[in-house]
Amino acid sequence: MLGTIPPLVAMLDFEDSDSQIAALYALLNLGIGNDANKAAIVKAGAVHKMLKLIESPNAPSQAVSDAIVANFLGLSALDSNKPIIGSSGAISFLVNALKILDKSSSQPRQDALRALYNLSISPSNIPFILEADLIPFLLNGLGDMEVSERILSILSNLVSTPEGRKGISIAAEAFPILVDVLNWTDSPGCQEKASYILMVMAHKSYGDRQAMIEAGIVSSLLELTLLGSTLSQKRASRILEVLRVDKGKQVSENFGGNMSAAVSAPICGSSSSSTNPNGKECLVEEEGMMSEEKKAVKQLVQQSLQNNMRRIVNRANLPQDFVPSEHFKSLTSSSTSKSLPF
User: Fold this and answer.
1) Model confidence at 262, in pLDDT bands (50, 70, 90)?
2) What are the Cα distances from residue 73, in Å, to 27, 123, 131, 182, 281?
3) CA atoms within 13 Å, Cβ hemisphere of 22
4) Residues 118, 75: Cα–Cα separation, whole Å
5) Which run of H or E residues covers position 318?
6) In the chain, what are the domains?
7) Which PANTHER family is this protein grouped with (predicted)?
8) Is 335 left (phi over 0), alpha (psi -120 to 50) or beta?
9) pTM, full prediction
10) Dihedrals phi, psi of 3, to nearest 5 degrees
11) What are the CA-CA distances from residue 329 to residues 23, 103, 113, 218, 326 (Å)?
12) Are the beta carbons of 167 and 158 closer than 8 angstroms?
């Protein structure tokens, strides 16, 4: 209110790094918990001057770079600032800073990830994130438990747009990596976020669903419906439902034109079933078609349940020669599509 923000922003033009750092942390402190100050700092041109520091021929010190990352984190918390910061070129700087700080446990690394998370909330920033080639870097970072949940939070924002979903879909090994996260039983938060990403992508694209199946998602989802959190169980069930519908369609298409005959079967014997000698034959044909579809679905369920049992046995560190009981075999042999937790 006393008008100190514009002079502090002007100090970013000073040549000595001590003045720059002092000004940056003063601005950072003024913005904490105060949205009016966050807006005033951006309005005074701080974003442009910070990027000018980064792009200057004399590269700034690491301390100055870390202070700029911290400021972008604070300023990006305000929704009205998100598109301004995103379109300024700050995303490329944050991605580069993140890559430089990769595998370190420093606070600036966390700040850069959190700033990118804030910016990814705004759909208008997603094209800039894709241009910075952030997705492959994020996927490769999964497995580092210090940052994995934050990475998945960013990816959860990216799947909200078609461009973001495409960016994830075309990234190398994206689905095997995300499916693997479903098996992280010691990190339910990561499981919930990964299942959300896969659920959205499964609902939107047949090609992505096929890639998920090839990555072995079915057994992971079945295990998640048994052992995951309530939220993970619901999301896993949603994905299984979509995959089940796809499987049913594929079986139907395998019959080709014969399906039309199966659909018309009741008509040929409906009004005169007692007098039409072909009526019974048509009904038998229809039942045969349906039984083939049920057999295919039943086989899929049995395979999934057996694979799931093997995974659970491995996780339980049971002896390698462990054999499921006859009771379990009878359960899997008699299971139908209704036994899936939809």
Assistant:
1) very low
2) 12, 18, 20, 29, 72
3) 11
4) 9
5) none
6) 1-132 (1.25.10.10)
7) ARM REPEAT SUPERFAMILY PROTEIN
8) beta
9) 0.74
10) 85, 25
11) 70, 46, 48, 19, 5
12) yes
